[in-house]
Amino acid sequence: MSHESSLAIPAWTLPVVNLTELDDSALVGEAVSGRREAFDVIVERHRRSVYQVCYRFVNNHEDASDLAQDAFVRAWKGLKNFKGQSALSTWLYRIAVNVCLNRVSAKAPITEPIASTEYFEDVRIEGAQHAMIREERAAAVRKAIANLPEKQRATLILRTYHEMSHQEIADVLGSSVGAVKANFFHALNNLKKILGTEP
Question: Residue 83 above 80 pLDDT?
């Protein structure tokens, strides 16, 4: 083999890695090593679930989008501190919940207004009346959830809307399974009390 032919294929040439085929921990490694596009894949992979968590806290698309974006900015800044002791999705949930709790505690709870009944006065279609009643009940539940203490609200949202186990919620909130169970129990009781006093 001549000297020229040995230089034709440098020994340091690495195969191109398709980032979308990597698992989360490999993507974290790539992103921490400086590949910003690896973090873009993480965002694409988890943005829907992070947005949904945020939406359950604020019940508003625009605010939820802002909060989700804020959560990913914080995740990017703190990625080097992710140790992989829990799943990346759990870590992202924790950041999103903290961002939401900080925002919600900084301002009054955001609730969607109940639709005016005047609009429906002349409507005789039974389906529209049922839809209105369902929306009023849903709005009342969202308002009640917004009035729960922070840990109870977070536990209820993650358990009810995201169907997480008690252990997963404990990982997200950084608490014990026993505390999660207690928070969920108290959240349900408080919801019943709040909704029971609704006119």
Answer: yes
